[in-house]
Amino acid sequence: QTVPEELQNGGGFGYVVAFRPLGTVSWMQTVVASPDAARYVFRNESLPPFSPYEVKVGVYNNKGEGSFSPVTVVYSAEEEPTRAPTTVLARSISASDVEVSWAPPWENQHKGRIQGYEVRCWRHDEKEENAKRIRTVGNQTSTKVSNLRGNALYHLAVRAYNTAGTGPSSAAVNVTTKKPRMPWRGPATAPLCQTSPCQACQAQPFYFIFFVRFFPVLYRWNRESSTSVIETNKTSVELSLPFDEDYIIEIKPFSDGGDGSSSEQIRIPKISNAYARGSGSSTSSACTLSALSTIMISLTARSSL
């Protein structure tokens, strides 16, 4: 920073720039005669990139030299990284997110610090030059790429960068995002038939996008008690329940993309005689009970594809 005129204390004011390679003894000096000068460029074609120098700046006028500033370390210009990151790995964590990790380049050539990494991500049917770019800062060696398309093949590559530019790219790795979250509607539950065995019970179909892995069936004694879960990959399940309690049942599909929406809650009142029916979004005639503690729940589903 330049010295204000009121502090120059006389004519012929200027600056003395002293510098030396870090670790050496002798100072090189040059005079900058303008009081308004705020920079000096030292040029040396044999200077290695990113070389550290100790620098101090003093002042003078017609009466003599003043004091020097404290010594600081500056670096010559750096070159972009010359090695690519290694061990690039990618995994899908959802239908829209991918996590990518890598290791720093093997060789530290001291031509410049690595200020961070640039991750490029492009879909298989896209051009690489149109890739999404995410930059990390510092020593971070993993990041998340978001807002991707579900169930799609992506290519990812990583390269280091600094103030001089970006280095060479790693080899691209492939990853396929998970299937999207499944249904936008919960399953339509069929009538609850309190019988064993039970005759076929018709249900309204529900629609989903991809393969349903299984259906968690959630039930509890009443609205306040804890919830129990049974998982099935079929469209029916038998529950053996005490017949002197009220029950609330929900069903929802699950896939690689996560849980779908739950069905409407179905309340099963206490079973006190040989005829009963569940109450919910769809009902039918009650089935004759042969085992009061067994309840059959059935539903149907069909793909929209």
UniProtKB/TrEMBL annotation:
Instruction: State the UniProt keywords alphabetically.
Output: Cell adhesion, Cell membrane, Disulfide bond, Glycoprotein, Lipoprotein, Membrane, Repeat, Signal
Q: What is its main location?
A: membrane
Q: Which Gene3D superfamilies does this UniProt record tie to the protein?
A: Immunoglobulins
The family database entries (PROSITE patterns) matched by this protein are listed as: FN3
Q: Kindly name one Pfam family recorded for this protein.
A: fn3
Q: Does the keyword Protease apply?
A: no
GO terms in the biological process aspect are:
axon guidance; brain development
Q: Which GO terms describe its cellular component?
A: axon; plasma membrane
Q: Source organism lineage? A: Eukaryota, Metazoa, Chordata, Craniata, Vertebrata
For the Fibronectin type-III domain, which residue ranges apply? 1-79, 84-180
> Which species is this record about?
Loxia leucoptera (White-winged crossbill)
Regions annotated as coiled coil: none
Name of protein: CNTN4 protein
- Localization of this protein: Cell membrane
Q: Which GO terms describe its molecular function?
A: cell-cell adhesion mediator activity
